[in-house]
Design goal:
The complex is a heterodimer of chains A (95) and B (480). Chain A has 95 residues and is mainly alpha-helical. Chain A has a domain at 5-42: Histone, subunit A (Orthogonal Bundle), CATH 1.10.20. Helices cover 40% and strands 9% of the residues of chain A. Chain A is flat and about 55 Å long. In chain B, the strands form 4 sheets. In chain B, strands 1, 3, 7, 8, 9, 12, 13, 14, 15 and 16 form a 10-stranded mixed β-sheet that branches. In chain B, helix 14 (435-442) packs antiparallel against helix 15.
Chain lengths: 95, 480
């Protein structure tokens, strides 16, 4: 499997990364190398082996349902570019 | 051409935990903006999600109630998309291995029952809120409130097995009843605790393949759900009959205009690039945890409905109304048990009581007439102390006071007259005073009997036992 120029442009757009045509060419080559590695791994016979969702075979620790966080809005918003009336402000989003 | 409607629903239920799914922030509704948004919801660098056990237990509770498979190993995945109310750039959800799969819900449509199968129910986090309007003195900006971000959601997905808006509403209502009954969701639709997405398509009747579907997002009332589906079905059929083609897309329902319209979706909106979230290990559920949840399960609406039919003799339809909420079911059971009059209790609760609650915009829990007081009234109807008409009068008096039915009957002298002698006397008077009606009745005009009965009821000030009046009238007229 090999990625086309179009595929790379699309992946970049989905990830909101601006790329030039030259960068697409370079990134495309790097991504195709990674695919090469994955193809090698896929050649290994994994019949009867249950896929793992995480490299470590341990399970999730669950916490009790208790409120432990306090209001730290002032500290968090001190570093925000723009706030008003307790809201974070972003450029207008129209849906 | 005959068309068949195909509907599947995705319902987002907010689980009523006190803290968020992946952090110890409060989930309380209505707080000042961003005062319940921690570093986790803000997606500050270096934070890690820590899963809330109560959300897992609540998902198991639903799964058990629906007869579903509880996946003892289930996995969180990242659903990637960019929107300002989702600072991480991905929503933590479940894809390949959800916590709950399969199961079914029985719904009541008119007099018939129908079983709707479920595909899955998975855990995920809610996003924040974008505020586009009402930002005083500011233009060109959107305000972001992340208080809701990270609220645990259980997204419950049905198979596309509903065939009308009516069935879809019945399913949504049954599910709403179930999640509130189980105590896993507060069910408050205005506050967005129970939000419905409807997948709607049409196909020529008899065709096996599904038509192209549209998804109507974020319906937050049963009325809107019904209206949006009906509009969408009509739109799709017209489009196809005019030679057009339905395009798969996401649509929004506009309640003011009563129509659905296409959401301006970007071409890549559906490419979420799911992958297992490396920040979260698989959830492994021990049988002991499932058993512990099972032990806490209440009697379910379906079981209670069947029991009401069996032990109290109420109709399936009445029983389904009575089990539309746990509070109502408990109210009915209290009245029916105290009086031994299941059917009569059901009639009063589904009739007079429901109408009065509805008129005053009250919930059963806020009913001015308690189950104990209604039982007192039902008892007096059952033993013929009160006619239906008088009972309604007593009920109204009870609505506005703390008095018992007996106290009101005593105070207002509302006892029904069942004394044969007294009724006979009134009947004789009525016959004597209305020769014309008597003649008409004898000439075969059945209605004339009602006129005479009306005269007797009037003479008794509504207190005569109507059944007895009819009976004695017939006797007297037949004998004369």
């Amino acid at each position: 499997m090999s990625l086309t120029h179009q595929d790379v442009a699309r992946i970049a757009r989905l990830a909101r990364i601006a790329v030039t045509d030259e960068e697409i060419a370079a990134t495309g080559a790097q991504l195709n190398n990674i695919f090469g590695l994955i193809e090698k791994m896929q050649a290994v016979n994994t019949d009867g082996i249950e896929p793992m969702a995480h490299p470590q075979d341990v399970s999730l620790r669950l916490r009790d349902d208790v409120v432990t966080e306090t209001d730290r809005r002032e500290a968090f918003q001190a570093v925000a570019p723009q706030v008003a009336a307790g809201l974070f402000l972003v450029p207008k989003v129209i849906e | 051409m005959k068309w068949e409607v195909v509907i599947g629903l995705e319902v987002h239920t907010q689980l009523n935990t006190v803290s968020k799914i992946f952090s110890g922030s409060s989930t309380a509704f209505g707080a000042a903006p961003n005062t319940q948004a921690s570093a986790v919801e803000l997606a500050l660098p270096g934070v890690l999600p820590v899963m809330n056990k109560a959300a897992v237990d609540k998902a198991i509770r639903l799964g058990l109630a629906l007869g579903s498979t509880i996946n003892k190993k289930n996995v969180f995945a990242r659903k990637n998309y960019f929107y300002p109310d989702l600072p991480k750039g991905y929503q933590i959800s479940q894809m390949d291995l959800p916590i709950v799969e399969h199961g079914s819900l029985t719904i009541q449509v008119g007099d018939a029952e129908k079983v709707v199968n479920l595909t899955r129910a998975h855990l995920e986090e809610d996003a924040g809120k974008s505020i586009h309007e009402g930002l005083e003195g500011l233009s060109g900006v959107t305000g972001i409130d992340l208080n809701r971000a990270g609220t645990p959601l259980l997204e419950i997905v049905s198979e596309p097995e509903m065939r009308s808006a009516e069935e879809a509403v019945a399913y949504a209502k049954a599910l709403h009843t179930l999640v509130t009954w189980l105590g896993i969701c507060d069910g408050n639709m205005q506050e967005g605790s129970f939000r419905v997405d409807a997948n709607v398509s049409v196909r020529p009747l008899g065709q096996a393949e599904f038509g192209t579907r549209c998804e109507i997002k974020n319906l937050n009332s049963f009325r809107f759900l019904e209206a949006a589906i009906n509009y969408e079905v009509h739109r799709q059929i017209e489009l196809i009959e005019d030679g057009g083609r339905v395009v798969q897309e996401t649509r929004l329902y506009d309640p003011d205009k009563g129509e659905t319209r296409s959401m301006r979706s970007k071409e890549d909106a559906h490419d979420y690039r799911y992958f297992p979230d490396p920040d979260l290990l698989p959830i492994v559920i021990a049988q002991a945890q499932i058993d512990a949840v099972r032990e806490q399960m209440p009697e379910l609406p379906g079981q209670m409905k069947a029991r009401f039919v069996d032990s109290f003799g109420v109709s399936a339809y009445d029983a389904s109304l009575l089990t539309s909420s746990l509070a109502l079911a408990q109210y009915f059971e209290a009245v029916a048990t105290a009086t031994g009059q299941g059917k009569l209790a059901a009639n009063w609760i589904n009739g007079e009581l429901a109408a009065s609650l509805n008129r005053d915009g009250l919930d059963i829990a806020q009913s001015p007439v308690s189950a104990e007081r209604l039982a007192g009234l039902v008892t007096r109807v059952a033993d013929n102390t009160l006619s239906n008409k008088l009972a309604k009068q007593v009920f109204e008096a009870m609505w506005g006071s703390e008095l018992s039915a007996d106290a009101i009957i005593e105070r207002d002298g509302l006892k029904q007259v069942s004394d044969v002698g007294a009724i006979e006397k009134m009947v004789e008077e009525a016959i004597a005073a209305n020769p014309k009606a008597v003649e008409e009745f004898r000439a075969g005009k059945e209605k004339a009997l009602n006129a005479l009965a009306g005269q007797v009821m009037k003479a008794s000030k509504g207190k005569a036992n109507p059944a007895q009046v009819q009976e004695i009238l017939k006797q007297k007229l037949g004998a004369a």
